[in-house]
Amino acid sequence: MTRHLIDHPRAAPSERLMRFLRLERAAMPGQPSKILMLRLQRRRGDRLKAYARIARGVSA
User: Fold this and answer.
1) Residue 43 within a domain
2) Between the chain's N and C termini, which has fewer beta carbons within 10 Å?
3) Does 19 or 12 have the greater pLDDT score?
4) How far apart are CA 20 and CA 9, in angstroms?
5) What angle do CA 14, 19, 20 make, to 5 degrees?
6) pLDDT surpassing 80 at residue 44
7) Which SS3 state, helix, strand or coil, does residue 6 take?
8) Secondary element (H or E) of residue 14
């Protein structure tokens, strides 16, 4: 009787795949960069709210 698919041992990832993943991860922005981008996006939203409030004539 043959073994079930999940009963077979997993093959180790090839060296080529590991090099590819290393290059792809190096090309992506790091965690500090992502935090800064999110912070800038939030500021942009706050700025838009302030401009809309000023345009309506509402003072803070």
Assistant:
1) yes
2) N
3) 19
4) 23
5) 95
6) no
7) helix
8) none
Asked if residue 19 belongs to a domain, the reply is no
- Report residue 56 as tokens: 């309506």
How many CB atoms lie under 10 A from the CB of residue 56? 7
The residues, ordered by sequence, that sit 6+ positions from 31 with a Cβ below 8 Å of its Cβ are: none
Contact 53, 60 (CB under 8 A): yes
**What is the reported pLDDT for 60?**
58
Q: Is residue 58 part of a domain?
A: yes
What is the longest distance spanned by two Cα atoms in the chain?
80
Count up the domains in the chain and report the number.
Answer: 1
Give the domain extent around 55. 30-60
In three-state secondary structure terms, 9 is coil
